[in-house]
Fold each of these.
Amino acid sequence: MFVYAAVLRVNSGNLLVRDFENNQEVLVHFRNARNFRPGDHIRIEFNGQMTHSIPPQITAISIQRIPHPVPPSQSRPTETRATVLQRRNNSLLVRDMSNNRQLAVNTPHAHHFCVGQRIIVKYDSIIMNNPPEINAIDITTVC
């Protein structure tokens, strides 16, 4: 799993970064943290586990500087596994199972899903709101 972020602060064993996807600060543990400077745009590879602390914390597998603050566009849809928290008129509020964050999933078929149901959502873009919004291309239930 990857996080694209801007470095805010550098310490000896960690970085404080701002995640481009949701504008959230994240503390990133990384032994070579001193190789980076505030303002660097980076791509962080990690195993998907994030603490519930404030700010959330992850441990980096690797970190690379990137020339642009957002990942390159993908030619195929992105997929996320989630649990439905709330059903709304034309959207679902879900908890992304990979990072435990809430997402709003825009779909005209929201009435087909139930609270607690596990789903896989395919989408091609994300809107940086709070919570972030994705426009569903397809939603599949997980048994």
Amino acid sequence: MDMPRLDARVRLYDDASGRPTKLLAFAELVIQDAFVIKGIRVLKREDPADDEPFVVFPAEKGKGAAADRWYDVAHPVSVEARSAASSLILERWRQAGGVAKAAAKA
């Protein structure tokens, strides 16, 4: 199966409150110039030895008896698609100056 054409837009997160946060950026993934997934986040890892950020696709908290669980709203369905989308988003994050901004906060 051929991978659809992907593009991504990344907006660096700037928290003026000064509180510690793992959120580095928000992203949108555009698929084949026809479909967009919003609400993607770029997060900092907990482990200080691994400074490579990771991508989290949109999810919503369950309701009622499932209130303690999170459910994916939109996500890649294959390992290859997840890898391609995550790599592109992280590349756009770096191009937007995310590495320098994250290092300045550390």
Amino acid sequence: MIDVNKIMKYESGDMNEDEVIDFFQELVDTGMAWTLQGSYGRTAKALIDYGWVSTPHEQIFGDD
């Protein structure tokens, strides 16, 4: 379960870049990125496309 305080911190713009990436990595790892409102999924997808967040498959198999 994602900490609601992290969501509030992200929503208020109080996370630095590293915190945002860590937060979205956690959302992808838990699958929450795909169940929250659409902007979370779109941001997660963009971070995956940029290579800043990895999918569980990439973590297991080391895809590039």
